[in-house]
Structures are given as C-alpha cells and as structure tokens.
Design brief:
677 residues; alpha+beta; Jelly Rolls; 9-stranded mixed β-sheet; 12 helices; 39 strands; 19% helix; globular
Length: 677
C-alpha cells in the first residue's frame, strides 16, 4: 500500500457521502448493464400550468433523460388535466434522470432540490396495472395508521378484522425497473382486494411472501418476510395490531397503509440509499389516506434512523417529509402526524464536541477508530454550532501508519483525496451551504469519507486502526465544532458486512457506578452523550412527534431512560416529545409483538418500539388530534388524550425522555400495570 495526499481541487458536491460511495462501489461492482438514472426531487419554475405541461412532455418522450415513478406520474397527469387538482400544494415531484444529465440553468422549468444514489433501470417483465382503489369499509373518523419500514407481513392476522384485511394498500418497493414509456417502476402495490384474495383459503403465509419476493427482490438481497421476525411487522403490531375477533378493542377498526422499503436501502444503514424512497413513500401514503377518509388523522410511523447529519431539520429527507405533512394538513385539512424514533446511539461514541476560543490559534485532536473487516464506507461529519461558520478552521488527517495530510486551507466546494495508486481511499470534502427553499439553508460542513477496510475482491482499501483527526482554528469568532460519525452497522438477519467505527479518547474510561466498570465519559471528554439523537428526527414542525425509550429500573423503583435511548442537546433538538416504556429491567428488555407469521411472537426494544407505542397512543387520541387542527397554539403534547396514562419526567432526564412517559393502551386493554415515577 503506497498512500499519498492530493492537492485541494474544486468539485461540484451536492452530497459528499453519496459521491464517495458511488465512486468506491463502482470499483467493487462495475456499472451494471442498462440505463443508469439518479433519483431527483424537483420544484417546478415559472407559470405552473406551462411547467407541468413541459414536465409531462419530457417524461413522455423516450429520448428525454427524465422518467417518473408511476404514482408520481399519476399526480402530475391529474394536475395537468385539471389545474384545480391539488390546488395550493407546491409543484414538487420525485423522478429520475439519466446519470450525468446536468442541472438546468436558471431558465429551465425546474430546480433540482435533491439527488439520490444512482440506479440501473433493468428490463421488467410485463405486469398488470395496479387495481383501482377499493373504498375502505372502516367507519369514517377512524385514525389511519401508516408505516414506512422493512419487512411488512401484510397477511398477518394481527392486521385483519375478522376474515378481511385492514390494509387499504401496501407498496412493496424494490430496486427500480423500466416500466411503461416514461416510467421507472419501484416494486408493486397490493390493494385491499388483492390482499383479501390472497387470504381466501390461505394455508401458508410464508409461501406467499416467498413468491412475491422472488419477483421483486434480487437473489442476493435480504428478504425479511421470509424470516421468523421482521422489523416492520413488529412495529406495525405495536402501533396498530389487534386481535381480529376482539370487538371491544377500538384498534381493530383502524385502517392501515404501509410501504416496505427495498432491502438494499435498509441494509445500508448510512441512509445513502434510503432517503429518496422514504420521501416517495410519504407522498404516496398521504394520497392513499385521502382515498380512505380525507378528514381522518394520518399517523405515519418511521422507526428508523441514522447517526450523523445537521440535526437542525435541514437534512433533505426529514425536511421534505415534515414539509409534506405540514402542507397536506394546511391545504387538504387532513391532520397528519409523523412519529420518529429518537435514536439508540447514546452509548455508541459517535458524537464529539470541540470548543475553540476566538482569536488565538489552537489545535485539538480526537481519535477515530476504524475497524478491520468493514466492507462498507465510513463517514465523519464536522459541523459548526448554530449561527456559526467554519471560517478559520483547518483539519488534518493522519491515517494509521501515515502519511499525514497536513493542514491545507479548504474552501466550500473543494475536496482532497488520499490515494492508493490512483484510487481514492479517503476524501476530505468541504460541502457548501445549500438552499432548500423558503429561507431554509443547510449550513456548510466538512465530511471525511473512508473506503472499506476489507473486501473479497482485490481493490484499494482504507487502512484500519486509529485515525487521528486534528482540528486547528484561528478564526476571529469562537467555534463550537460538532463531530459525528455516521451509522455503519449490520442489522440483525442481514449479511454482516458493516462494522461501526467510533471515537476514542483517554478521558473516555472513567468509573461507571451503575455498571461497575470503566465505561463512563469524564466531564472534560470530547466524546459526548448529548446530541446523539436520530439525524432524521430533528425537524421541529407541529406535525412531528419524536419518541424516546424508557426502562423500569428495579433498583431505583422508577422509570429511567433505557441505556441506549439518545439524548438531545442545546445545539440541536433539545429532547424527544415523549417516551414510552420499552424495557422492564436489564433482564427483561423489549416489547413482545407478532413475528412474521400469524401466531408467532418476538420481542424488539429500542426507540423504534417506543415510536410504535406512541403511534398507538396517538391513534387512541384521534378525536383530539382532529379538534386540535382548528386550535391555534396547540402543541404535540396537547394531542394526547387524557384517558391515557402519563408519568412526568424529571427535568434531569428530559433530554432523553421528553416531558412524559406515555402509556398507549386504551382503558381495559393494558396488558399489565406499568410502574411510574
């Protein structure tokens, strides 16, 4: 291995992590056959009707590089046919464009707001058109519970009412295939009638999932619904599962929607592949919910997350999902709540903080431990505190065994590579600030990206071990620098390819009185517990609810934050909205719920389970949510029905648990008495 650093070069950087991942993954898996497209999200410019017509013309032309997912195309077509359709909603659309197509100039009819990871539009077999939606038999006014997740066992008895499905529709997303002219199809949608037809005379649920997976999911990908437990199934059960024959349980009447994300997007825990699918899923859910009951509250459970990001609501996926929810409620007058898990990274040593005084040149260092056997990229983000800039900051990177990069000034829109031969194995990027519209700006930041440390194929690799990150500041203003390592682990059941890197510091091994070991962070340690929240859950809109996880502490006899439950901070979202009881002690962790097939049972913990319980609590509060739409000054806390159980959180625990621990059980349906403060 012969490593050398390049000089600083100018680069067009929209997403430094995505750009580097695309580069390194092409070394391992050459460009596949078939046209390459990248997901984009656009906002139309100019006169609306003319811009819509121009977009429809573009996607209808086989020679044009723009294509659309069929559901997005249907929205555009309807608005072109009748300008009154969706009046008041912005002209924003998810679509795909040929890789390498430049952004339009200022005279173009659209503006690109975001790009995603490139996909190959493989040829797809002929498929019957999706059936027209069937009206929901649910009584009007019932809350509509929707889930965006992995592995959704839509045949499970917990999602039926007597013999019929409670699902209005399920979108089983998959890697894109070329559809009819002008379209890129992502998986398929099953409506109520199709699901009921599958249930008619059903003997083996597993065989149905296997047959569907065989036509949608590539052979090498994980197929969650063919395993005993699946995350999405369990979360949906905690949120809205019910005994199909218990006429006394109000949850049994709630209609359901779900989007199963492609397994490849789930497997990449950095979030690089996931975000475009999540945004499309949210847009699809809102329109399907209006078909069920355009006045009923829509509760969208998002029990997933990543570790690093701006954490100020400006990461595109969370920004756009919050925006879709807010605008839908304002324009369509249908209440929407998005329930995010607050994060499980409290103890993962993925967040650090360095402080620099104004005026004087100072240096500080922190070590980044990059593990051997990691077959995925690793990322480190460096961001200034609120209202601050990176002016006067320089960073140097010292790989295990060298060579050191040295301090070289970098301006926004530049990068610098560590090469093995001619191939980059590490990159430092200075990402310029980004305008999202409406005065929302994602601040400039630095990203350090590392290639995998291991690969089955011969390729240049990043060295594993202790990387030194040295920061030097000489700016005129003080700087609070936040360093975050991106999530990079392997999910249970998935192929174990990723290994999580972490920060290390001599001050990170103080005595921990509860654990009776040396795992505590000293007060002066740069590694922090605060600010460890899910980087997709930092939007603070009225429609956004975040959930922490509580554990019953048998020693204290109280509820306490679960050891993994993340903490907010003064530089980002200070705390979750509320929390739910997930663990009943160190030896009794997780919440029981259904496995993949009917009649089976598994337990899951984490703030994912907490978010699902809070979704159920909000479903039981549906009447209150509907009333609050017309109440100025109402808050997320005022959405919870007084009939639920509440335990006030002490101030010193609010950064991890919010204001209350909430019981999600209707009166008479609580499985057991819950301990409180």
């Amino acid at each position: 291995m012969s490593l050398r650093w390049t000089a600083v070069t100018t680069a067009e950087i929209r997403d430094a992590c995505l750009d580097f991942a695309w580069l390194t993954r092409q070394r391992r898996h050459p460009v596949p056959t078939g046209p390459l497209h990248e997901p984009i999200f656009i906002r139309l410019r100019g006169e609306p009707e003319a811009a819509r017509a121009a977009l429809l013309t573009a996607v209808s032309d086989p020679a044009d590089p723009l294509v659309m997912e069929p559901h997005e195309l249907a929205v555009l077509t309807a608005r072109c046919a009748d300008p009154a359709t969706d009046a008041g909603l912005p002209d924003e659309y998810a679509l795909y464009r040929g890789l390498g197509t430049p952004d339009p100039d200022a005279a173009g009819f659209y503006q690109v707001l975001d790009t995603g990871f490139p996909v190959a539009l493989t040829e797809a077999p002929a498929m019957a058109a999706a059936p027209a939606p069937v009206a929901s038999p649910a009584a009007r006014g019932q809350p509509i519970v929707a889930l965006i997740d992995d592995g959704i066992a839509f045949l499970n008895a917990r999602f039926r009412k007597e013999g019929a499905t409670r699902f209005h529709a399920v979108w089983l997303q998959a890697l894109e295939q070329a559809g009819s002219p002008g379209t890129a199809r992502s998986g398929e949608v099953l409506g109520r009638a199709q699901i009921d037809a599958l249930l008619d005379g059903l003997v083996d649920e597993a065989s149905v999932y296997a047959e569907i997976n065989s036509r949608l999911i590539r052979r090498e990908a994980h197929r969650s619904t063919e395993h005993a437990a699946s995350h999405g199934t369990h979360m949906l059960d905690l949120a809205a599962g019910a005994d199909p024959f218990d006429a006394g349980d109000p949850v049994r009447d709630w209609p359901l929607l779900a989007v199963q994300l492609p397994p490849q997007a789930i497997a990449d825990t950095s979030g690089i592949l996931m975000e475009s699918y999540m945004v499309m899923a949210m847009r699809w859910i809102l329109r399907r919910a209006a078909e069920i009951d355009p006045t009923a509250p829509v509760l969208v459970n998002l029990s997933m997350g990543i570790a690093a990001g701006p954490k100020d609501g400006t990461r595109f996926a969370e920004y756009q999902i919050a925006r879709e929810a807010r605008l839908w409620e304002e324009v369509k007058e249908q209440p929407v709540r998005v329930i995010w898990s607050f994060g499980n990274g409290f103890e993962d040593r993925l967040t650090a903080r360095l402080g620099f005084a104004a005026g004087a040149e100072t240096e500080q260092q922190i070590d980044w431990i990059v593990q051997p056997g990691d077959q995925t990229e690793s990322y480190l983000e460096l961001r200034p505190g609120p209202g601050q800039t990176l002016d006067g900051l320089e960073i140097a990177l010292v790989p295990p065994g060298g060579p050191a990069s040295g301090f070289v000034p970098m301006r926004p829109g530049t990068c610098r590579d560590l090469l093995d031969g001619d191939a980059p194995v590490a990159r430092i990027s200075h990402v310029a600030r980004r305008r999202l519209g409406g005065g929302v700006i994602q601040p400039a930041h630095l990203v350090v990206a590392l290639a995998p440390t291991d690969c089955a194929d011969p390729e240049p690799l990043a060295p594993a071990g202790r990387w030194q990150v040295i920061c030097r500041h000489s700016g005129a203003a003080a700087l609070e620098l936040h360093l975050q390592i991106q999530r990079d682990d392997s999910l249970t059941g998935y192929r174990p390819r990723a290994r999580q890197s972490y920060f290390d510091s001599p001050e990170g091994y103080d005595w921990h009185p509860d654990r009776q070991d040396h795992s505590a962070l000293a007060p002066d340690c740069a590694i922090r517990h605060d600010g460890t929240l899910n980087a997709l859950a930092s939007a603070s809109g009225r429609q956004i609810v975040t959930a922490g996880a509580a554990r019953h502490d048998p020693v204290r006899g109280t509820l306490w934050p679960a050891p993994y439950s993340a903490a907010g901070a003064d530089w980002c979202l200070p705390m979750p909205t509320v929390a739910a009881l997930v663990d009943r002690g160190p030896g009794l962790t997780g919440l029981a719920g259904t496995g993949t097939t009917s009649g089976s049972s598994r337990a899951f913990n984490g703030t994912s389970a907490a978010a699902a319980r809070i979704t159920r609590a909000l479903g039981l509060s549906a009447d209150r949510i509907s009333r609050n739409r017309l109440v100025p000054g109402s808050t997320q806390l005022s959405d919870f029905s007084a009939d639920l159980g509440f335990w006030s959180v002490p101030h010193d625990q609010s950064a991890r648990l919010g204001v209350w621990v909430v019981s999600p059980w209707a009166p008479g349906h609580a499985p057991e008495e819950q301990p409180g403060y």
